Amino acid sequence: MMITSAANPSIRQIRVLRQRKERERSGHFFVEGVRLVGEAVALGMVETLVVAPELLTSPFGQDLVAQQAGHTRMIEVSAEVFASISQKEGPQGLAAVARQRWVNLADVRLTNAPGWVALLEPADPGNLGTILRTADAVGASGVMLLDHATDPYDPAALRASMGAIFALQVVRATFAEFAAWKRAQGIFLVGAADKAPTHYQDLVYPQPLVLLMGSERQGLSPDQQALCDQMVHLPMCGRSDSLNLAVATGVLLYELLSQSRRAVLHA
Amino acid sequence: MMITSAANPSIRQIRVLRQRKERERSGHFFVEGVRLVGEAVALGMVETLVVAPELLTSPFGQDLVAQQAGHTRMIEVSAEVFASISQKEGPQGLAAVARQRWVNLADVRLTNAPGWVALLEPADPGNLGTILRTADAVGASGVMLLDHATDPYDPAALRASMGAIFALQVVRATFAEFAAWKRAQGIFLVGAADKAPTHYQDLVYPQPLVLLMGSERQGLSPDQQALCDQMVHLPMCGRSDSLNLAVATGVLLYELLSQSRRAVLHA
């Protein structure tokens, strides 16, 4: 039976997933668009598919719904109801409630470049999503969110990540847990700070490593820098004394990727 | 006399500057925060200072107001009225209406690396602001906005730019005007596209040059690519086949900066 009221309890339950506390409580998140929903289905993360037949014109989306019939819980909604839960212009008529997926720090296996990025209290979901997108593009294994980080399942983070969250392992831990893990595993940690003496291209990055980035406002504290085996800086020669966090992380990840490429070329 | 009503015509006139068409019509924009207002004052761009004495606790801001008394038009407002025009959490009690500043393409003088960035129809003001911030950080001269670009004086762009707009020259032109200028001046143009055969680090970037970036959605069309003397790509090895525009531009600008640094080191 098609749901035609935006006040329907199932629809309300989806709408509250815009709030972080409801996402935390349920362990769920809301995702929309045929491509992203398709990826969530392929990963076995989908709890409920939400379909608005009037809006779903994509053949890929229609096939997906047909394949999942009988396998995945599905609710049909009117175009108006879909619009009430969608945060997109031009909604595609396919969305899902999916289960969040987190990796435990203890289960992390370090791989070679570009490895892992650890973010200390990133505050802006758009930045976090953009970093996930870049980490995916360079072939990183995952992202660690330390202390009070913004939520990668926030709609703005999901949007900016372009679905990279489905390709990456994401870890949540306190900085203390991270520090204990780093020491126990003997992991090489590189941090970034604008006052660090070493130019980011003057370091030969050992493998495997973890790249540690501070928050947008605070950067890394002296204690956090002390945990790093090496600190690097990005040069700045204008009026500005800082970069956007996602841009700084992107430049460093591309340097890691470039160095591993040169190592292969010269091998 | 202090303005205590948010409905006051002067206050309304400021509030409408949130709309692009009102910014275009007036040639003005709204800027807040003691640091940014201070920069706008120093550049002679301020039309009217807006001061909320109850909120203005910064000694720098208080000095600025005292210095400008009698030189710059000033309106005093209550904390409530200030909050009605502010888009910041924790407003600082100092804002300004300032005049936009644009440079004509004909007046552009090319300088050495990292030179200029030309953006074709960037759509997201946050991306544009972030690119301005990065361009400033690497010491670029300016940014050219081609065809239907988002507004660098949009509040979201100003916020993301962290005031870089005050340090950079910004040009508006059509792609046709830009193409004619490039041909007439014999400027070396490097474009970015994910299918370009050349790895972005395999090109020795000649100086001076202009870096051309396509829009978030479309990238560069074949015609636009044909105008470029060289096309480069950023490698991607994950699930994702694209990068955030501001990240891609940042990685390329840092490559330009790095190459000019290596040229100096090896000179």
TrEMBL record, chains A, B:
InterPro entries: Alpha/beta_knot_MTases, MRM3-like_sub_bind, Ribosomal_eL30-like_sf, rRNA_Methyltransferase, SpoU_MeTrfase, SpoU_subst-bd, tRNA_m1G_MTases_N. This is tRNA/rRNA methyltransferase (SpoU). CDD domains: SpoU-like_rRNA-MTase (cd18095). The lineage of its organism: Bacteria, Bacillati, Chloroflexota, Chloroflexia, Chloroflexales. GO terms for biological process: methylation; RNA processing. Keywords: Methyltransferase, Transferase. The keyword Ion transport does not apply. It holds the Pfam family SpoU_methylase. Belongs to the class IV-like SAM-binding methyltransferase superfamily. RNA methyltransferase TrmH family. SUPFAM superfamilies: alpha/beta knot, L30e-like. The keyword Transferase applies. GO terms for molecular function: RNA binding; RNA methyltransferase activity. It comes from Oscillochloris trichoides DG-6. Residues 30-104 form the RNA 2-O ribose methyltransferase substrate binding domain. One of its GO terms (cellular component) is cytoplasm.
